Amino acid sequence: MSTPSTDAPARPRILSGMQPTSDSxxxxxxxxALVNWVSMQEDFDAYFFVADLHALxxxxxxxxxxxxxxxxxxxxxxxxxxxxxxxxxxxSHVGPHPEVAWILACQTAMGEMNxxxxxxxxxxxxxxxxxxxxxYPVLMAADILMYDAAFVPVGEDQRQHLEITRDLAxxxxxxxxxxxxxxxxxxxxxxxxxxxxxxxTSKMSGTNSPDKGILLLSDTEKQLRKxxxxxxxxxxxxxxxxxxxxxxxxxxxVVHSTLSGRSVEQLQADFAGRGYGDLKKEVADVVVxxxxxxxxxxxxxxxxxxELDRILARxxxxxxxxxxxxxxRVRDAVGLLPAAR
Length: 341
Ligand code: AMP
Ligand code: TRP
Prior knowledge:
Helices cover 52% and strands 6% of the residues. The protein has 341 residues and is mainly alpha-helical. The longest helix is centred in the C-terminal third of the chain and has 30 residues, at 305-334.
């Protein structure tokens, strides 16, 4: 992985998105992705969007799609994305995403999509396979390439999608001349992967984990405490970081450490001779403390839907400028006539 350089004259561009597929982001989204967005927005020209078109690959009630799209955008901001600095917008508000995806789809081999592990996993778990789900990675490639993004900060689970994006960009450039910037994934090695509380060998997931296994950023203090206090640990009594042998205790240490800023070694020393009850109580305190300001900001944003709309309108205005320029380039490259404006 190459590290983004911050001393270039113009700030390099970063872009990332999340799907609005649940009623709240969970602690894994926050610690695994959102905190990186927030720290990177200082040094990069940042674009963050709600991947509402991607969310349609899962059949959902339209009212629910609307609600979750607003909540997801509000949670980006409540989590620290600064809309004055970064463009926050809805994917579907930038017209050319599906257009560029179509053009890229016509350069993509069936076999390349057949290899995508996320599609294989989702269909193996019984999700019905519509064509949208199959071509999901092509739309994601369009999302990224349309913004000339230098870096794409995501979790490890998105690596394969970034590889196909790079392949498509390189192929397109070779066939049609230099059109796209080839992006680099930005997957910080140290970024936390948060596991389910009920089964600490599975990743905490908004769509697959049971309620009791996920800490939602919208949970009440009581719910958060209850979930942490019931987290599955093991039959020993020693607080020790050992993800193989002690996945439950290790996960609690990671949550504590990433939120409190204290190292896992320090925590281990602090908890020497103390039981799991003490550890859980302290983790619950740290989680509640972290979630409180987030929820206060969330309440303000949801109380003032007009302000959220203004933020999204400003964001999309910035996004459209960049997207229009690349889309013109792409259309011209493949031989589509310019449309009258
Ligand atoms: P998703 O909810 O799968 O759309 O994920 C949105 C973002 O959060 C992606 O960048 C993921 O890599 C990240 N993410 C999701 N679940 C976790 C988790 N349990 N731990 C760390 N990062 C996660
Ligand atoms: N597939 C990503 C996820 O599930 C969401 C996404 C869609 C995305 N388009 C993107 C992420 C472009 C980064 C860049 O998390």
